Every structure is written in structure tokens, then in C-alpha cells.
Amino acid sequence: MPHARSLSRRRGSVFALVAASLAAALTFSGLSLSAGQGSAHATEGEAEVGPQPSLVVAPDSPLLKSTDEEFRFGVLLKNPGKQPLAAGTVKLTIDNHRAERPEDLSAEFERDSLELGSIEAAATEGGKDQRLELVVTRDDFPLLFTREAGAYPIHAEFTSADPATQDAGVPALTASTAAVWNDVTTTGPLSVTLVVPLVLPSSVEALPNRDQLASAAPRLLQVLDAAEQRYATIAIDPRIIAGTRALGSNAPGAATTLLERLERSPDPKFLLQFADADPAVQAALGFEQLMQPLGFDHATVLGKFEPPTGETNAATGSDTAESDPGNGGADAAVGAVEAAGASTATGAQTDSNSSTAADTSMAGTETQVDPLTGVPTLESLLSLQNARPGAWPAGGEVDSATLALLQGAGLNSLVLDSSNVSGATTPRATLGDFDVLIADAPAGLAARTSINGATATERAAGSAELAARLALSAQGGAGGLVLALDRGALADIADPLRIFDTIDAMPWVQTVSERLQPTSTAVLRAGASTEERRELLRATVARSAQIDELAPLLAEPDYLTEYQRERLLGALGTRYAAPGVDFAAVDQQIKKRDSELLQGVAPLVSENTQLVGSLSNVPITLSNSLPFEAVVTLHATPTSAVISLKERDFEVRVPAVGSANVLVPVHSRVSSGDTALLLEVWDVKKDHSFASALHPLTLRTAIETALIWVLGSAAALLLGFGIWRSVRRRRKGTVAAHSDNTDPGAADAPPVDANEPSASEE
Fold first, then answer.
1. How confident is the model at residue 398 (pLDDT cuts 50, 70, 90)?
2. Predicted local confidence at residue 16, as pLDDT
3. 332, 344 Cβ separation under 8 angstroms
4. CA distance 31 to 35
5. Where do runs of H (alpha helix) occur along 104-197?
6. Which candidate in 231, 287, 442, 682 could, as Cys together with 633 as Cys, close a disulfide (CB 3.0–4.6 Å)?
7. How deeply is 609 buried, as exposed, middle or buried, from its count of CB atoms within 10 A (0-12, 13-18, 19+)?
8. Taking 60 as the threshold, does the pLDDT of residue 350 lie above it?
9. Contact 437, 195 (CB under 8 A)
């Protein structure tokens, strides 16, 4: 195996070298950078390489008035590639006539235009942006006196000063926007109904915890205030409701206030699918029923609830029993997906007893709770008083299968993209058995850019296009318009109220309730999701089934399947179908998290453990990558006869996303050698093995013998030295006592004078 790994590394190095050589060849083989559409051209037939430069233009304000002293226009040169973009000139022009149709806002054909001015642009480094500003004074503005009020397209063109680019005939970079001049002349304001989503940030992958609710609720309250002030239709992610109710009295105050406000709000409102899962892609994957959550026991265990009183029990009655949330297994789903390509998916199969109230809510019902614990039932966690049964699939991706899936779930109110509908003469229509709000697709896309554009110039360009499109609708005498705000964009920005201020600044717009919009009939224009998204989601479904199989490792197996169902619903999120969203990058994040969970509970094996005695306790560490506490059986088996185990099974409790240690007593039968322990992780019932690893051991009992000899010799020396010292001291004491006994008068003898000569000296 080491040889195989080395070979793999060498192959990888060779591939990396080849790739680097190709990249260098493409970079330095004399490619010329295109300005126009940002294409890089080399020899004939070569493909474009890398991201290309682009141009963005926008007025600082979407409304230009003849009383203004000056007019400012921002220009953004974006160079996402590695090569620098040469210096050049940006020229701005404005159409000589106002736009009469939405098609007039594009720059695809030549029109009579007037020059606003030009700006010199320095070279733009690779991976950098350059923002420029053109200021036009009132006296120099070409529309000052004679032009009628309305929307006027504005165009920008960047011409490179690089002679090589000019000689190659590379087209210039171009961009268009629009501005509304002197308001809009209409017989009355345009009635606009807003569809405002209340959804959680993309960072919340499952049911929100307390901290996530505490962070999101204040911003959602601001959005709710703005929506109610403008009579908007409110679309609510059920995770907000379930997450708040699942915590009981432990829920953050702002989240509780938000839930109470939603229940009291008189404005039209409906619940999205849980985690805003897209019904259109569920239909495309062959789901026979809308996917539902399995339960929230893993969340309610963290909540605080008061047992209901007798009166409450009487009010809830037999309805307090929690209905079956569905018995559709991931295994059957994956098998169907693999066999038919798109048949049923995880959780698509549910019991006929499974109530669609999980996503539709029942008006006027009391919160149903368990009669013993006070924990709300699944239906109560997912219902909202006075909310209608509705859905909002991905724009432009609805087909007849989607409508059948929604109808089977009991949903009769829809928000559809205008690209998905034909034949309607009003923004509200009936489509078969459905009551449909038809959201204007181009206006919605402009609003999305206005909300979450990467730079201030891009956001201003989105606001300008939105104002121009609404002005054209008002100018054309449209009966009304539905503007659906993008759920992903509104959920992740720091200032969600900016789009409402932008709309309020348009005098020709009046926000009204959907109830005031006229109604007509419509016909479905079928759309479809992208094949890439469907294939990535099929793989996600398969991985989800594998994660569900790890549930027996947990102290509470249902917690994992509940949590994973929530994650899977989040992966189906409608926000990921929006234009410009890189779902492949989103899928990489989902796949990374799936890989972490699939590690389950596994032993962490060291390089080698050396045994120095006939009996040793080998430390084994079990790691738990799952978000809940695990209780497992560690089964250890010797791989050879040189060791033996008196005990082979060890029950271990491993904390969530943590580790635990266990000591395995090992008896060695030889003085030296190499062996290993086969470690297997089983569920506590020992029905299945979920992970295994070899833990290498090295026997060195000779080392223990040497240590014993050294320690024994040292002890003997110390003992001998102690005995010798004791004997010596005893002998000294005996000699001294004998001397005292043989000369008893020595103590009484007079002192001898040191100067007196001895007898021998005489």
C-alpha cells in the first residue's frame, strides 16, 4: 500500500506538471485580450479562457429631475482575470427619445443618442475593479428642456487605448442602464403588490438553534414591519415557527415577538415549504409527494415547556396525539432514483395519514400539545394561524408535474414567475384550480440586483433598471404588477430595508394588497430545472440515505434522521435556483458537510503502540462526527495468536462532535514481535458494524526484563548500602561503649597540660 500511495503521488505530480505547462502555454502564447464581450482570442478555433472583463454603468439616483444642479453617473470596470486590462476611454450616451417598450432598454440595436461625456480610465489590474464617476452639470445635460418625462436608456462604451487590441479589431466593452426623467406622466399610479419572503440566512442548514434565532429575528421583524406598511403578501419559512415553538419558554424574546406578530398580521400570508424547499425540483426528481420533516425531538429536548392544565387538555382533546410524519425511507428513495433516474426521493413516500397541514396550516386552530409534557405536536410546530395553503416554486421551472404535486398536497394558492405563464392580462389570475399571483420576472431580477449587487454601482444599476421597468408599466397603463422580492438576496444582506426605500422613492408606484389586484385567467407555460442541479441533488439524496444509516449509533437514533431530513430539505432550497447562483459551489459545501457526517463514530488509530509487558492497557480513542451523543460497542479482535484479550467488547458513550477514550487490556504471549488489534464500531445491539480500523502493536517484553533488572539492581545496591551504613554505625557505637567500660577513672582524671613533657620525653 505505501508503494501505491507513492505511485499515486507521482501520477498526481505528473498531472499537475502537465496542467501547469498547458496553463503557461495558454497564458504566454500571445493571446490577445478581448474587450467587447470580454473574450480572449488566440488562434482561430481556440476556446475562451478564464473570466473576462465587463462594464457596469448606473446613475447615482434612478430619478433625474430638471431642477437638479448636477447629474452623477458611476462606471465600474471589472477585470476578474489575471491579465491587466489596458487603459482606455469610457464614453456615456443617453437616448434622444424615451423608451416605449421594455425592449427599448436593451443595447442590442442602434438608436439616436446624445453624448453625456467621457472619462479616461487607467489600466485595471487583474482581479481588481476600477470605479469611475462622470459628473454632468445641469447646463450640459442634453435632456434639460425639450424631452418628455419617462425612462431613458443610458449606454456606456469602453475603448482600449492599447494599439494591439485596436489592431486586432476587438470590440469595445459595452453596458446599458436607464434613468427616469422628470417622473412619469400617467393617468394614475401603478398598483404594485409586493411578495416579501421571511426566510433564514443561507448559513442556517437545518432547524435554527437559539443563537441563530436570536440573530435573525430582529432583522426579520424589520422586514415584517416594512411589509405590513406596504400591504405586502408575506411568505414564511416554517423553520422560523418550528424553531421558536420547539424551544418553548427558552426561545429568544425577539423570535417569540415575531411569531406573535405573524399570527396577528391581517395581511395575506402563506407558509413556504420547510426550509423553502423547491416544489418544482422535487417534481423534476420524481417525488410523488412533497417532502416533509420527520419530527423535531432533537430540538424540543432543548426547550422548556409547562405540562398543560386540565382545561388545556380539554381544549386540545384527542387532537393532541402527534400524527405520523411519514414512513418514507431513504433507502427506497435512493433505489428508485438510481433505477428510474428520477422516481421517488428521500421522504417523498409518506403515509396517507401524513397531514399536509405540516406546510399549509389551519386557520383558527389552537396550539396542540402533548398532554403529559406540554411539547407541541408536529402539526402545531409547522402551522400558523390564519395562513393560507400556498407555494412559491422556483421562477420559470414549473411544469404540469409540479402543479400535480402541489395539488396533491392540498395547496391552491401559488406565486409564479411571469415567464411560466401566458395569456394573463392581470397580475392575478386563475390557472386551473389555482389562484395565482404572477410576479414580473424582469422587474424581479432587477430588484434582486438592487438588493444584493456586489458593489454600490451594481446595486445602483439594479435600482435604475427596476425604476425604468416600473415606469414603463405605469406609462403603458398596466392594470397592476406583482413584484416578488428574491428570498436568497433578502435573507443574507445586512440592510434588507434598502429595497423598500427604493420603491418608496418612485412617485408613480403605489403599493397595494393582492386583494385589490384585478383577476383574469392564465395558461401554464412549462419550464424545467437545469440538468446539472437535478444530478447534483440526486447525489445529495443518495448521501443523505447513507447518513441516515448511521442512526443506530446514537443514544437517540431518531435525532439523526430528523436532522438529516431538515438538511436535505435545505439543499432543495428554492433560492439556489435563482439566476446567477452557482449551485455547483453550493453543492460543494453540502458535500463537505455530508463527508463529515459520514465519518460517523470511528476509532482514531495511531502509527504504532509499543507494549513493554505481558499485560498492557492499550488506549483507544473513538471520534464522533455526528451532532448528537453516540452510544456504541467497541469490539476488539487480535489479529494473531501472540496476544490475547480477556475482554473484547466495550460499551462507550461518545459526546456529540467529540471523542472518548477506552482502555483495552492486552496479554502478550511472546517477548517480541509485531501484531495489531482489529477495532470495530458496532451499535449497542451489535446488529451492524459501522467502522473498522487496524491498530498496530509492537511487542518488546525484553525491554521490560532489562528495566526490571536495572530496577532490581538499583534496589539491591540501595539495600546493601543501607545495611553497610547500619553495620558501621553499630560498630562505632560498640567501640565507644567498650572504651568507656575499660577506663572508668578516665572521666575523673585531671586534665593533661599540653606543655608538660611526657614520660618518654623525660
1. very high
2. 42
3. yes
4. 13
5. 163-167
6. 682
7. middle
8. no
9. yes
Strands 523-524 and 630-638: unpaired
Tally of CA atoms within 13 A in the half-sphere of 394 that contains its CB? 26
- Parallel, antiparallel or unpaired: strands 150-160 and 173-181: antiparallel
> Using CA atoms, how far apart are residues 548 and 374, in angstroms rounded to an integer?
28
Q: Is the predicted pLDDT of residue 326 greater than 60, yes or no? A: no
- In the numeric block, the cell 396550516 is attached to 361
| Residues facing 119 on adjacent strands | 90
With beta carbons less than 8 A apart as the criterion, state whether 586 and 674 touch.
no
The pLDDT of residue 29 is above 50: no
Whether residue 283 contacts residue 407, with contact meaning beta carbons closer than 8 Å, is answered with no
- Quote the CA–CA distance of 583 and 581 in Å, as a whole number: 6
Rg (CA), the chain: 39
pLDDT digits (tens, 9 = 90+) for 676-712: 899 999 999 999 999 999 988 887 655 555 555 567 7
**Cα 295 versus chain centre, distance:** 21
Report d(CA 312, CA 316) in Å as an integer: 6
Q: Which three cell numbers stand for residue 95?
A: 437616448
Q: What are residue 246's phi and psi, to 5 degrees?
A: -65, -20
Q: How far out from the chain centre does Cα 252 lie? A: 22
Nearest residue to 239 via CA among 536, 562, 484: 562
Instruction: Give the DSSP per-residue string, 534-595.
Output: HHHHHHHHHHHHHHHTTGGGBSSHHHHHHHHHHHHHHHTBGGGGSTT--HHHHHHHHHHHHH
Distance between CA atoms of residues 376 and 305, nearest Å: 9
Tell me the C-alpha distance between 682 and 622, whole Å: 12
pTM: 0.78
Q: How far apart are CA 384 and CA 269, in angstroms?
A: 9
β-sheet with 630-638: strand ranges across:
609-611, 689-700, 672-683, 630-638, 649-654
Percent helix / strand / coil, the chain, rounded to 5: 35, 25, 35
CB-based contacts of 231, cutoff 8 Å, min separation 6: 193, 194, 267, 511, 512, 513
Spatial strand order of the sheet with 88-95 comes to 63-64, 173-181, 150-160, 88-95, 113-121
Q: Report d(CA 412, CA 49) in Å as an integer.
A: 48
Cell matching residue 464? 435604475
- The amino acid at residue 290 is L
| Contacts of 693 by beta carbon, 8 Å cutoff, 6+ apart | 602, 603, 605, 678, 679
Find the range with the poorest average confidence among 467-476, 699-708, 710-719: 699-708
Residue 598: which H helix or E strand, with range? helix 583-598
Q: Which residues of 68-91 are buried (b: 16+ CB within 10 A; e: fewer)?
A: eeebebbbbbbbebebbbbebebb
- Range with the poorest average pLDDT among 206-210, 308-312, 691-695, 728-732: 308-312
Cell numbers linked to 386: 390564519
